[in-house]
Amino acid sequence: MIRAENLSWGVPGRLIVQDISVAFPATGITAIIGPNGSGKTSLLHLVAGLRPPLSGRVWLGDRRLTELSPRGRARRIALVEQHPSTELDLSVRQVVELGRIPHAGGWPGARDPDRAAVEQAMAIAAVEPLVDRRWQTLSGGERQRVHLARALAQRPQVLLLDEPTNHLDLAHQIDFLERVRGLGMCTVAVLHDLDLAAAFCARVVVLDRGRVHAAGPIAETLTAELVGEVFQVRAAVTRTDRLRVLWSRS
Amino acid sequence: MTVLALTLTAAIVALGLVAIGVGAADVDEATVLEVIGRRLGLIRGENVTELADRIVWELRLPRVLGALAVGASLALCGVILQSLTRNELADPYLLGISGGASTGAVAAIVFGVSVPFVPEHLTITGMAFAGALVALVVVLVLATGRSGTLPPGRTILAGVAVGQLATAFTSLAIMVFGERDAARTVLAWTFGSLAGVRWPSASVLVGAAAVVLILLVFATNTLDAFAFGETSALALGIDVTRARWTLLVTTALVTATAVAFVGQIGFVGLTVPHLIRIATGASHRTLLPLSALAGGALLLGADTVARTVRDGTEIPVGVVTAVIGAPVLVFLLRRQAARS
């Protein structure tokens, strides 16, 4: 579905993403894991087309991402950021409606041809009861779901999530990832919690110092040796009722 | 939205009639309407005296229109700057753009800058624009962190520094190189004055405000997309770099036009967008037109007070807007403090 080919990116004097080639399939969640500073968010932003790579390219289907206009790109790829925040006094509906901006015509006040998109997105993300609440009054879990709804209102083919479960309690982490997995769409999620990744993701891309350390189906790729190599943490990866990652102090 | 828009429009019309009527020589409302009706060719108006015609049509009406246009322009600039920098304290005055513009304009006047075949007021506006742009770029460069972020506190500090420097230069240039009545001129440039607005300047100001308002109506979605910051705007398909620079340069141009004719007027751009956001929310579809109306009404009211509160002399209009605006600034600061 979406594919990175020899991507490199960095700031002057330091390459943050080095020669990464990786493909994300059309269905199921792919987890991006790796230590802090390994280039996870940078890779996600490159795949989202938010910044041009220094070299390499991103393919969406059989088209290069750079062939698309910024709006065309935003109609196909949606991103949920790490900590979306605003000082503005917006209602939940207004935040979700931001997702329709890539589809809006140039004329002010033009009718949105797909007015059901906002309602459907809110239903999937279970934010309908919050529709008239103000953004500032929402809890962390609610904010995350509202931004999922905003992303879905874009009607994307690819959903990119940057540490979507940060600051959520365990029940909300599970609920959020179940919801996303239920969408069955091409999803890429940067995750820190290896056990959550093991439980919800079909595939994994492991980054270390800006390079791909390993990539593939999570059941085969995520092993105790890998956790030891990349995170320097002793761990056991077991398969009982599901894939589990258990760690102990190294 | 509609109710507020109609209320503001009605308030502007009523305020306008009163403003044209009051002053050193009072003219009653009926005469005001007669003069305007006669000039527009609606009535024959045989009772209109030459004096009433001069006062209403040549002196006060252009000044009223100028005040409405400048107020609307400054309020719109405030909306753009606050949305783009995600800083509730941003406005052309606090970010030093007005100061830069006045430095450019005053430099053009006292050093007698002239360009062949270009009318004088265009040269002054052009220099004001250059000054505004330089000030804006300096403030953004000073405030931008290594990661490209624009922290609100540092942005305002940079703006105040640039603005104060520009104002100091303006005052110095007028005192040293200016004419005899220098102190008054300094006051007019640093606190604003609409006393010199006649038809030619009023039409430029009204034209500028109208063009900007129309342009901005097409930028409502773009401005909305900045609600969660630049990364989020990028992800929503906004060409952030282009949008940011187009809108910032527009802001500098509009501010420069206003400053070139009426000097620096603070607080309109700061307070009006906040009051409208509190009243009808942050969506730019309503925020932009309502801010333009409210900004116009505010400056018209302030200018009318400025020229009538004391018999015989005018007080600078910026003094009046500061008296209204400073308490609102304090309120905003307290609200921000309470939230953090």
Helix and strand arrangement:
The complex is a heterodimer of chains A (250) and B (340).
Chain A (H helix, E strand, L loop, with lengths): L1 E10 L2 E11 L4 E5 L6 H9 L6 E6 L2 E2 L5 H5 L2 E4 L11 H6 L18 H9 L15 H14 L4 E5 L7 H14 L2 E5 L3 H7 L2 E6 L2 E7 H4 L2 H8 L2 E6 L3 E6 L2
Parallel strand pairs in A: 3-8, 3-9, 6-7, 7-8
Antiparallel strand pairs in A: 1-2, 1-4, 4-5, 9-10, 11-12
Chain B lengths: L1 H20 L7 H11 L10 H36 L11 H14 L9 H24 L8 H26 L4 H10 L7 H19 L2 H6 L4 H6 L4 H23 L5 H13 L3 H25 L8 H23 L1
Helix pairs in contact in B: 1-3, 1-13, 2-3, 3-8, 3-11, 3-12, 3-13, 4-5, 4-6, 4-11, 5-6, 5-11, 6-7, 8-11, 12-13, 13-14
State which percent range the strand residues of chain A make up. Answer: 25-35%
Radius of gyration of chain B: 20 Å
Q: Residue share in helices of chain A?
A: 25-40%
Trace the largest sheet of chain A across and list its strands.
6-7-8-3-9-10
Largest sheet of chain A: 6 strands, mixed
Averaged pLDDT of chain B, please?
A: 89
Annotation field: number of helices of chain B:
14
Q: Helices and strands of chain A, in N-to-C order? A: EEEHEEHEHHHEHEHEEHHEE
Largest beta-sheet characterization of chain B: none
Number of β-strand runs of chain B? 0
What's the β-strand tally of chain A?
12
The biggest chain-chain interface is: A-B, 35 and 26 residues
Structural shape of chain B: globular
N-C termini distance of chain B: 30 Å
List the defining traits of the structure above.
heterodimer, A: alpha/beta, 6-stranded mixed sheet, 4-stranded antiparallel sheet, B: 340 residues, mainly alpha
